[in-house]
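URGENT: need a sanity check before tomorrow's submission.

F., can you look over the NAD(P)H-quinone oxidoreductase subunit 1, chloroplastic record below? I want to be sure the sequence and structure line up before it goes out.
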Amino acid sequence: MIIDRVEIETINSFSKSELLKEVYGLIWILPILTLLLGITIEVLVIVWLEREISASIQQRIGPEYAGPLGLLQAIADGTKLLFKEDILPSRGDIPLFSIGPSIAVISILLSFLVIPLGYRFVLADLSIGVFLWIAISSIAPIGLLMAGYSSNNKYSFSGGLRAAAQSISYEIPLTFCVLAISLLSNSSSTVDIVEAQSKYGFFGWNLWRQPIGFLVFLISSLAECERLPFDLPEAEEELVAGYQTEYSGIKYGLFYLVSYLNLLVSSLFVTVLYLGGWNFSIPYISFFEFFQMNKMVGILEMTMGIFITLTKAYLFLFISITIRWTLPRMRMDQLLNLGWKFLLPISLGNLLLTTSSQLVSL
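Structure tokens as predicted:
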């Protein structure tokens, strides 16, 4: 059998194109892996910050032995949980018991797809970005309810029911606040919302145009994160540990990770919706523009945008950590009353006022 030169070149070009496709496929994975690495580092930093801030508030020392200034304490705790025995309840629903933590973690990780960390630095710029986040965040309590039900423990089941009830109570005011922001920005894309706030710089933030919505969003996001004073689903005085009572080892570590991932996502969305995202006046960009260093301008804008976004997010994190270690826990009836009788009417009124102002401006 004789193969001519043309056929050989065709075969080689085909093999090269297939190789390039595989390489391109690997390149597309790199941003996702980079984001996951960044999320992991951020969670470790938040855990360390919470321990240091809580120690300062309570006049304690805090972590100091694992690494310099106790920076490796979170890694040490995660390693310990990784090697702990994974105990399964003998009379529980084992498949649901194992799936519950995974659903909670995956649903929150998907929220990072629509968060613009900097200028042109977002994985998916969707036209319904903010509402996709709300839809995804409502999946996490399903995993908590599954975890509580499958544990065959009345404390765990009560904690799962509380998590579902709390999520429903505060998801509606949260949605009304987001809808008001979408009306002001004429878009539901997270990138468009940030860019709409860049027209007037610092005074263009939605914080000044939506102060009532900002307070409602802040309270509702804390309740969604199940942070004190809203951590009723895992109240140790009443429910031992709630939906995570029967969990141990790495599965318990996943619930621990969920709480901090949820807090990080909420702080980033507060930054995007109300604090202008990455927008801030950067006077020294003109230096690079003067010398026509356009590539340097793009890199600087993206780097500074990420830095500014994270700085604003850490401001919200500091507020939430301080609230956790200063305010007492609410009762369950008080928590539901706050959501249904106060935040829901206020958020609805804020939405009506925003809609009316937008109609008048037309």
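My own read: The chain has a mean pLDDT of 80. Residues 287 and 322 are 40 Å apart (CA to CA). If you see anything odd, call me.
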